[in-house]
Amino acid sequence: MFVLNFNKKCAILCYINPCEVPMINIAILGFGVVGGGITEVINMNKDKLRQYVGDDIYVKKILDLRDFPDSPYGDRVVHDISEIVNDDEITLVCETMGGVNPAFDFSIALMNRGKSMVTANKELVAKKGIELMNCARENGVHYFFEPSVGGGIPEIRGMRTSLAGDTITEIDGILNGTTNYILTRMKREGVDFTSTLKDAQRLGYAEANPAADVDGLDAQRKIMILTAVATGYLCEEKDVYCETMTKLTPADIDAAKRWGGAVKLLGSSRIREDGCALYVAPFFVPEASPLCFVEDVYNAIRIVSPVTGDVMFYGRGAGRMPTAGAVVADVAAILSGLADKEKKCQWQAAPEGYVKPFGENKFSYYVRVKTDSVSDTLEAAGLAFGAVKALDGSPAGFCELITDEIAENTAQAVFAGEALGVVESVIRILK
Amino acid sequence: MFVLNFNKKCAILCYINPCEVPMINIAILGFGVVGGGITEVINMNKDKLRQYVGDDIYVKKILDLRDFPDSPYGDRVVHDISEIVNDDEITLVCETMGGVNPAFDFSIALMNRGKSMVTANKELVAKKGIELMNCARENGVHYFFEPSVGGGIPEIRGMRTSLAGDTITEIDGILNGTTNYILTRMKREGVDFTSTLKDAQRLGYAEANPAADVDGLDAQRKIMILTAVATGYLCEEKDVYCETMTKLTPADIDAAKRWGGAVKLLGSSRIREDGCALYVAPFFVPEASPLCFVEDVYNAIRIVSPVTGDVMFYGRGAGRMPTAGAVVADVAAILSGLADKEKKCQWQAAPEGYVKPFGENKFSYYVRVKTDSVSDTLEAAGLAFGAVKALDGSPAGFCELITDEIAENTAQAVFAGEALGVVESVIRILK
């Protein structure tokens, strides 16, 4: 039985389909945790997806270096990308390989053959987003990436639909579950960074090489992507200040509690007409902010715009099912035609100077100084910063203070100098 | 100059438009706080909206009983709905009148003339949603209502897009800003309900007649709407248990703190294949839930589904600009064609017995008993409930306990009987 052009999304009705419902053939690149989850979600939500998309979604091919002889999908695994590129029945491809290469070349080849793509690969989107969006536009296909930031949290769709008519001015995100888990444990139990990281590794929450998480690189990519969705400008990594959270100590976490908040690793952008401030660093977050109470592996993205005020999207920022669910939601948006109507992502390189030099940003700071005389330190700090407040409950031998807002460059010059004495810790305060 | 059928959304190019950009004519019913905000948002975000929708949006007529001689929109105010119904240039109408009548008749008349609608009127959607959705479908127009629940929070679009392929099993919402403001003040300051309500009224956060807010009717309508979006079934008000929060005392708020959480007025639904539990009541919310920290006039909606896990949408649940912004976002979704692709709302009446009788639901309870002997009360409670835990720090002369899960009917029979003695307060615990 042949049904040619049964509908525009499905060139040929598949033979192995027993009940002759039209099907849409897709492929998955990378059959790991998330890639495997995609097949599971498609099975689990088969009926709902058929209702939404109008057809059944069929995973026809899966690219992986490995074989999966025991998987029910084992016979669909291919090792050569050309088997997917050249398969004209496949109209959409989910990329969950990670890394820039060869994912970038594969994606370009696939879109050049008229296939839409959904990716969970934040590194690729952050580094090659402009080329990928351009390639999609030239080929009249979609390149969607909701799963690349915040796992199952639909903040990118929110920005491309409900907030599309408004002007986003601020984004603050807890964008990395591993570091938030570590910070939550440090806060609850008073334990130090290294032992908490080891626990997180043992539990599978942190990678054997945790640098991308704890040094903020993962959050850096994600805030670059969110800022590009808001502004249309994709910045370069080198322009985004990124500070590790590995130096945080129990004394810092305790100080944040006494101050009335918690330490969080934030990716932030402050967007103005003439440019934006963009950075990743640990911050004191006050209890008045809903971000203060986002704990464990949860992520949250707070977005401010003049009309809507502040909204926050909260949920599981990683994990097999939430991330796979976000991939399938983007697949369904493309196949149902929803994607055609969402605000287009046409990114361009941020112009020279668009990202404000980090040193020009102004912050208030928490500063802990080792000192024999608290009053001497406070006096010196007053001379350097103008108004400062001492934090109550400091451990003996230390002076802790909160400065007024001051330019980063000026502040760092003071911290590096001898005016205050031995500065043991400096943490910026979220405003 | 005449341009007929310049595009499908704009039958005739308007004369007073100086730069001859095509325009879409809309109308507003009710020029109050939100209605006035709509004109402001459209002006403020003119460029972004043009980019998104493809045309300028022009508010051609405004229905109100009053005249507005000093408003720049004064000459567009009409007093007779037929001036809008019969104006074929108007393709979309925003309804911000409130109340069922005459808003319902107006909406039906407008949709029967081929006009799409956006409403902020939760009472109308909760009571007449089925007829309104049917009328929209029959006329091939849209009836959109994101602003009716959670002001500027885009949770309904999230449910109709990103979560559309998943199965929603739980919804818990802080859906009323007035009561959340009162509860936040009571928690922070230890003050009583009545004086806090007076303050809220003085500040304009609460109505002169606050019954709809404090008795939970507002939240009841909103949880009915959210449940209908999730299930397709609109329940009747009489089937949704609704408990006032006016009886809450500082002792309750303090007990929740000692227990490790806060009291929140929640609208909740627990959705199963064969029916759902649906209710509005004050709850003890544990600190482990992100709802615990939603404070002041903010609203939040937490949604659970098997794939995505739990997501929470947080933001300003009311107010001129956020609500007007949500109206304009729905207007833009309709005019851009996005609405055509979102999951359709085809509601029907919930079948008999779909909403589980409230008495059959199981909860854990916080119970405060006036007693001369804590040990006697604990023993009696143990006999009645099985395992109970005493709450530490109870005021003298009282025994406070937390029960295991037990059916509401059974629990209430115990509270009403003489076994425990004088039961001063009973509050359910969020699970």
Description:
Chain A is of the alpha/beta class and 431 residues long. Chain A is 35% helix and 27% strand. Chain A is built from 15 helices and 21 strands. Chain A has helices at 33-44, 46-53, 82-85, 103-112, 122-139, 155-160, 177-189, 193-202, 211-214, 217-231, 250-259, 320-336, 338-341, 374-385, 408-416, and strands at 4-7, 10-12, 23-29, 56-63, 77-78, 90-95, 116-119, 143-144, 170-174, 233-234, 241-242, 261-272, 275-286, 298-305, 309-316, 348-349, 362-370, 388-390, 398-403, 406-407, 422-429. In chain A, strands 9, 11, 12, 13, 14, 15, 17, 18, 19, 20 and 21 form an 11-stranded mixed beta sheet that branches. Chain A has a 6-stranded parallel beta sheet with strand order 5-4-3-6-7-8, sandwiched between helices. In chain A, strands 1-2 form a two-stranded antiparallel ribbon. In chain A, a hairpin with a 7-residue loop joins β18 (388-390) and β19. Chain A starts with a strand and ends with a strand. The model of chain A is unreliable at 1-19 (pLDDT under 50). Chains A and B meet through α2, β15, α12 and α13 of A and α2, β15, α12 and α13 of B. β15 of chain A pairs antiparallel with β15 (309-316) of chain B.
